[in-house]
Amino acid sequence: MSGHSAESTRGAATDSVAALIARLLEAGDPYAALGACTRLDSAELEELALENRRQRLVVAAAPFVPPRLLERLAQAGDPALTLRLAKNPATPEAALERLLEGAPPMRVRRYLAAHPRAGAEMLARLAQDPDIDVRRAVAGNAQAPAEVIARLAAEDDTEITRAAAAVPAAGAGTLARLWERGEIWVRADVVEHPNCPAELLEQAAGAADPLLRRKCAGNPALPEAMLLRLLADPDEQVRGAAVRNPAISEQQLDDSDDPSARVRRLFARRCSLPQPLIARLAADSDAWVRRWIARNRDLPPALIETLGGDAEMAVRRSVTRNPATPGPVLTRLAGDADPWVRAGVALREDLPDEALALLLGQAENDRDRDVLGALGRNPRTPPDRLEVIAAHPDKDVRRAVAFNRAAPEAALTLLAADAYPLNRAILARRSDLARRLSESLLDDPEPQVRFAAAANLARAAVTETQSFQ
After folding, report:
1. What percent of the chain has pLDDT over 90?
2. Are the C-beta atoms of residues 411 and 432 closer than 8 Å to each other?
3. Domain check: are 320 and 356 in the same one?
4. Structural domain of residue 268, as residue ranges?
5. Are residues 308 and 356 in the same domain?
6. Best CA proximity match to 319, nearest among 293, 298, 337
7. Dist CA 317 CA 345 (whole Å)
8. Which residue of 171, 209, 238, 249 could cross-link 233, Cys pair, CB 3.0 to 4.6 Å?
9. What pLDDT digit, counting tens, does each position of 12-31 carry?
10. Contact by Cβ (8 Å): 340, 328
11. How far apart are the C-alpha atoms of 86 and 64, rounded to whole Å?
């Protein structure tokens, strides 16, 4: 490409951004302007997105807007905006600090103290708040530093001490002091914490109260020897917590044959199990055990074949979702009497051609929306069939096509005029949506659709500009 041609292309890309901004300003739609602001830095669009108090209230509560807009709103001094910003999980730390500087009421301080973006300095300040509800919120904040937690843990308030025993920064010394208070629920939280001292874990593992043993069994820092001891506990909830613990090796579970179906279900949900245990679980009398083990990718073909013929529909459905299920089994299940099983096969992008042909042949008379919706999502479904599904009477079936990355433009055009707003909103978020369809959705009656369409067009315009820089 010549220098003149490259410069012309670069200029055209820049013009597309300017043209989009001009179009949105002319339309005067604050929702479309807000959507574009998620991708573009435009003072004029920001003014439009915040043009009235109602719109500012909407933006203050939205977790998907750019931080700069939330920081701007934090300067307004509006009590209603302040409350919404304090509750918004996306509000940046600088904006939170500004809100606190405004001496807000207790309700706002409580939300600030619980905010996931609150900084250590602000939390230290709020930990000294005269209102106990604010201090409780600080104690439960996962971002609270260790020194703040240690100070709060000395308070005579069960809610604070329980929260302090659960936050990540609680140190071993703090946890030991909390244990000494003797409150059973606080102790239970202490022994569940990864920083719990080893001597307290030993006490909890041998405690008479099954609550302490159960919480101890779930601690990921528990030594494997102690875990194995708890795996043989007489209480099924304790054994279940031990099975769920990621610290226990699957190989250590080989000899386990638990009398409780609830515990065996937890065994069946684990990966990398020994083959003898997999075989026992696949033959379990409890349908939920077989249902979970049927999804295990380590199942040998013979067991997959057996479970694929299980009398329980849910077990056969699980077989269809197993990545290791062979093609012949999928083909057989494509003709299953239960539509939920057929839908499981229809979702598979790796299904054999014979299975797809069988499902498509049945779809002529299949009124089950789960099967049709699964075919609508599957990129292997032929374009002409996707167009038919996009015109289906059921809105949920039609929506499936909006998620299909291989959907033809003819089907997407139908969805752009869909009667159900959510379908149009999902369509508007597609990164590969034709520009003409995105532009048509700028005139949609639903604000969420216009927002998504403008954000999509802005993304495309910025990407086009960056590719020539």
Report:
1. 89
2. no
3. no
4. 249-325
5. no
6. 293
7. 8
8. 238
9. 445 789 999 999 999 999 99
10. no
11. 15
In a domain, 317, yes or no: yes
| Chain centroid offset of residue 288 CA | 25
CA trace torsion 248, 253, 257, 258 (10° rounding): 10
> Count of domains in the chain?
3
| CA 449 vs CA 17, 424, 425: distances in Å | 20, 6, 4
- Same domain, yes or no, for 304 and 352? no
* Residue 30 maps to a domain: yes
Closest Cα partner for 407 from 390, 428, 431? 390
Running DSSP on this structure, what letter comes out for residue 410?
H
What would the two tokens of residue 34 be?
Answer: 């807000």
Q: Is residue 400 part of a domain?
A: yes
Placement of tokens 């807009």 in the chain? 69
- Residue identified by tokens 């639903």 is 446
Retrieve residue 464's tokens.
């086009």
Is position 244 within any domain? no
Q: Which amino acid is at 156?
A: D
**Which DSSP string corresponds to 57-106?**
HHHHH-TTS-HHHHHHHTTS--HHHHHHHHH-TT--HHHHHHHHHT---H
- Within this chain, do residues 299 and 359 fall inside the same structural domain, yes or no? no
Residues 6+ apart with CB under 8 A from 350: none
pTM reported for the whole predicted model: 0.88
Phi, psi torsion values for 231, nearest 5 degrees: -65, -20
pLDDT in tens, 348-371: 999 999 999 999 998 776 678 999
6, two tokens: 């490259």
pLDDT at 5 exceeding the cut of 70 = no
Q: Residue 254, class by beta-carbon neighbours within 10 Å (0-12 exposed, 13-18 middle, 19+ buried)?
A: middle
